[in-house]
């Protein structure tokens, strides 16, 4: 990662963190609910989605301040999905980013409600943003509910659970990743561009770009699970090995997975060019997604 | 209930049922997710909230068709809240309206995701309704996310759980009911009036009306638990007795609860008059809420 990209990411991460904490902080709600929502929202890592949204907005000359509330809303939706995915009935995870998961720190009922609260609050935030027109708000809400809802992320989670202990082929693997993680990444790119004032044709190319960005993200995740540094990725390497989940290296071999990532990378760059923003920070972020070490 | 009210409710219930099933039916999503969402959505009872929304819209001369999608969205939010409330970590209920609860019929993970899916889809539906202006959609979405989210229903559920096995006073009891069930009832009335074209001052009076309507609904619920006909209410009478939950009859005695309901009823009627719709179907529905036997 270049020094300028690192500085850019750090600055935007700080903006997102402040917006998130201020949005939750101002709620007059039962204290246990607030603590639980805050606990998971502040446990965030790289803030990839909201930073991507802001970068996309800025690439089209939009104002950062106009994108901030939507980026916080998006991070809340991502956070809700992690809280619910970690529940005992789902992935039954006890630790996330070195801290107890929400239901371990509080209890299951509180975790379910904190997730419900974050999801619902995200629509409150977008519909209340004064720097957006009503038309923009409606489009941003429609796209977010599609990306996160039964046609998007929720479908991906069901398919992911059904795919456990079963061999999936490359097409099935792509479908699950596209729904489960790709939809919110696509939303980040498209929503930012919408706020920034991109034209309709540019949005179509951006959707294609975001599709490949999501896949690059996932291949790299699978690769890091094999040859990553455990101290950097925060979990033991080889944790995908034990279960029967399909991964890119399992399907294509490590070399094949790296080649596949390069194919996706080429397509992502081409789509960015078609979207008229090839020299933007988005290109740097794409390369970073592809070569990140954690 | 008058014959004309019964016919009115039946007609609108049918419209709501059709809209709900068509909205879920058209989703191209994993079959298990769709079945689970459909299962709980079609297990609905009287469809009070969506019918109230339609009645409120019609009271101001609005078109029924313009209110239909928002009324289905509201019923989806209500259904999601029942699915999550029934979960083992929450109320741990096994039967609802004579059928196994969602997590008993499917499994916990599916139930959590079906709830998440219904909640998120509701915002998709409102933002996609062509008979509403962008301004109306934004207001309808803002109000729904406030009513259902951490400031509304989700807060009510947390407080309700915290109030179990603890004596609450009348004020605390009203707060819980206002958040947990009152917010969505208020939404029904206000959203319908907004779609119907009510003026701003009328909306304020309607909010007050809806507040008392919610309390009437709850007092009558508590009264039916003592002197209702088990065959009609679908559960044994006295089921509130065993736990330590506060109810109106426990706090005020049965006679006192009936008097309290009359106080609320008077206030509701006055507010309806101030809202300029005193002769409407809303008045009939109010009386029905107050005297219903199930």
UniProtKB/TrEMBL annotation, chains A, B:
Q: Which reaction does it catalyse?
A: isopentenyl diphosphate + (2E)-geranyl diphosphate = (2E,6E)-farnesyl diphosphate + diphosphate
Keywords on this record? Isoprene biosynthesis, Magnesium, Metal-binding, Transferase
One Pfam family name is polyprenyl_synt
Biological process annotations from GO: terpenoid biosynthetic process
NCBIfam families, per the entry: FPPsyn
Name the CDD domains for this protein.
Trans_IPPS_HT (cd00685)
Q: Which family does it belong to?
A: Belongs to the FPP/GGPP synthase family.
Q: What EC number(s) does this enzyme carry?
A: 2.5.1.10
**Protein name per the record:** Farnesyl diphosphate synthase
What is the required cofactor set for this protein?
Mg(2+)
List GO terms (cellular component aspect): cytoplasm
């Amino acid at each position: 990662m270049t020094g300028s990209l690192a500085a850019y990411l750090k600055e935007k991460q700080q903006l997102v963190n402040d917006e998130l904490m201020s949005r939750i902080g101002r709620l007059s709600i039962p204290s246990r609910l607030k603590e639980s929502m805050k606990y998971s929202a502040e446990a965030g890592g790289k803030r990839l989605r909201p930073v991507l949204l802001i970068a996309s907005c800025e690439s089209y000359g939009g104002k950062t301040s106009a994108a901030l509330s939507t980026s916080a809303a998006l991070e809340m939706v991502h956070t809700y999905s992690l809280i619910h995915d970690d529940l005992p009935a789902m992935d039954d995870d006890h630790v996330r980013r070195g801290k107890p998961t929400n239901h371990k720190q509080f209890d299951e009922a509180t975790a379910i409600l904190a997730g419900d609260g974050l999801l619902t609050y995200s629509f409150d935030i977008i519909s209340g943003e004064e720097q957006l027109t009503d038309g923009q708000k409606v489009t941003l809400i429609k796209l977010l509910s599609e990306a996160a809802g039964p046609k998007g992320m929720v479908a991906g989670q069901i398919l992911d659970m059904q795919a456990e202990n079963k061999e999936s082929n490359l097409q099935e693997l792509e479908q699950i990743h596209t729904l489960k993680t790709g939809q919110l990444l696509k939303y980040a790119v498209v929503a930012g561009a919408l706020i920034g004032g991109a034209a309709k044709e540019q949005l179509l190319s951006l959707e294609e770009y975001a599709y490949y960005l999501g896949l690059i993200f996932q291949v790299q995740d699978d690769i890091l699970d094999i040859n990553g540094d455990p101290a950097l990725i925060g979990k033991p390497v080889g944790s995908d090995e034990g279960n029967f989940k399909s991964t890119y290296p399992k399907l294509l071999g490590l070399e094949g997975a790296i080649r596949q990532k390069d194919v996706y990378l080429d397509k992502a760059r081409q789509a960015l060019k078609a979207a008229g923003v090839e020299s933007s920070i988005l290109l740097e972020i794409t390369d970073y997604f592809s070569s990140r070490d954690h």
